[in-house]
Amino acid sequence: MKMKVKVRHVTLSLVCLVLGFILAFSYSLANSEKKERAQLTDGQWQREDKLRSQLIGFQENNSDLQNEVYEKQQKVVDIEKELSQEKQIYFNLAEDAEKYRMFLGKVKVEGPGVSVTLSDSQYNPDDPNVNNYIVHEHHVYKVINEMYIAGASAVAINGQRLKHDSYILCTGPVITVDGVTYSAPFEITSIGDPEVLSSALNLTGGVKDQLVNENIDFSLKKENKLVFEPIISES
């Protein structure tokens, strides 16, 4: 009987010991898993924080790059404006140079224009002074000056093109243009807008009226095309 009791006690002790070992191992295992989970969560948080910091850095860098792009774009716009202004300046210079060459008679000019013919008036017995009936150089100059003021690009007298230093002299019934003598009638042609030129010459109280009042026969004609060849220098 005593032997059976001892065996039961030993068996119970052994069971309790195994159960205690199992419980201790389970608690240790659960605690270890809890720590691992805590460590894993902390690592994920650190990684997320690191990625967030990198993203903020990328955004700041991108903002800086955008500002740099905007600055460079503005510089490009400024350069384009400057080049456009320089282009306009060069264009104006080229246009002025072309006008000067035309004024000097160095280039061929052609286009529409007008022709004005000045003729001596018929003799009037009531006025024996013949100078009051012939064309003088100041009559020719009035027409030429009005043509240039109205925008003529080139002017010629009896087909002889005028240049910047041309001179006109009157000797009795003839005039001399740059050393070449012509007799009346004198045809003064100019290249330019026919409407503008004719309107300028026909103004009330203008050149035409002044010449007619001075007994000069005045006639004006619009021309569809006039051609002035370059002036050949004698030198």
UniProtKB/TrEMBL annotation:
Recorded superkingdom: Bacteria
Q: Which Gene3D superfamilies match?
A: Protein of unknown function DUF881
Query: Which residue spans adopt a coiled-coil conformation according to this UniProt entry?
Result: 48-82
Q: Name one Pfam family in it.
A: DUF881
Sorted alphabetically, which keywords does the UniProt record give? Coiled coil
Q: Which family does it belong to?
A: Belongs to the UPF0749 family.
What's the name of the protein?
A: DUF881 domain-containing protein
State the organism of origin: Bacillus salacetis
